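Researcher: Next entry in the queue.
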Amino acid sequence: MLRATPFRGSNQTTVRGANERLVLHLVRQCGALTKAEATRATGLSPNAVSVIFKALEADGYLLRGDPIRGRVGQPSVPMRLNPAVRHYLGLKIGRHSYDLVAADFLGQVVARRTARHAYPTPTSAAAFLRGALRPLLRSARLKPEDLSGSSVAMPSELWHWTEDFGAPSEEMAAWRDFDAARDLGPLLPGPISTENDGTAACRAELVFGPRRSHSDFVYFFVGAFIGGGLVLNGSVFAGARGNSGGFGPMRVPDEPGGQRLVDHASLVVLERLLAEAGEDPAALYRDPEAWEAFEPVVGPWILRAARSLAHAIVSTLAVIDVEAVVIDGAMPPGMRARLVREVGRQLDLLDLQGVIRPEVEAGHFGSVARALGAAAYRISADHMVDGSRLLTPAAAG
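Model: Structure for this entry, 397 residues:
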């Protein structure tokens, strides 16, 4: 049974837009929702809910499900989101790759284009877009005017830490003056927004992942470097500068090879270890099965990354009390599952006095999470409730 939501609606007609957003938010969370359930969850009157449901159905946001029979009175009709009502473009600018996706309102990737590179520059990012966008739209059977917005996910201050992945600092300095709306505006359908890539991956997990019983969690994404995000009150908390969940600089004790989390739990480290063993690191991205072939190197890296992540989790819990930790990354699902299991085991070996052990779960989107999260940005901004900015009456009292 759906419990009352901490987000409350208003029966005043002047806030119809906010109430519609609230109902869409709840339908997304639940998968399907009847009018009676929405009434109980929101505190709105049955008449107000009925009006909202009719308006959202007329606008194409909601689709009718099969009536639920066998109860007293008229059968209830659950409503679900219409995946085709909106489509969005998400671009990930990464340290080793570009990723462009078109996604529908439910987060289904209808088309995708990727490209590897040694290091990113604004010029090569624009060139990738020029070459990839038209084939992507053609594959998705979409026109530019069918898109409701575009978002770019990229690391903050991309010009930093260039020595860690072998990029020339002179060329990377061009990112200091980069503005996505200005520099990519002629290529991307608007409106255009930009978000930290770790925050975007976290947003994909929240908006498009399975429904969770907990409303607060920390999200780690293991990519070329390591980043992530923070979910509070059921919404992504980006922070004042958009960098919440930038876990790379977190200090890790007693681990040879560096004092930062990024020195251990990142794919750049695994690439370096493979190169030292005489293997080709690029094979990690060409063929997921290559991870198994590199087992003499991959196994110790997973242990090292898991030990470091466990320390980072305890440090995070000392600052903010969350119910769960979600770990995802640009790796095959089997390797992600191994990493999650090992993080749980390493967490149990640490002194947890003063913190409560969270659930440790695997993420669901892997390498596409950052581009998909970029596509989710406008859904969050336009059609969901931002709980991280709300203080409920109960909390205020």
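Model: The mean pLDDT is 90.
Researcher: Noted, moving on.
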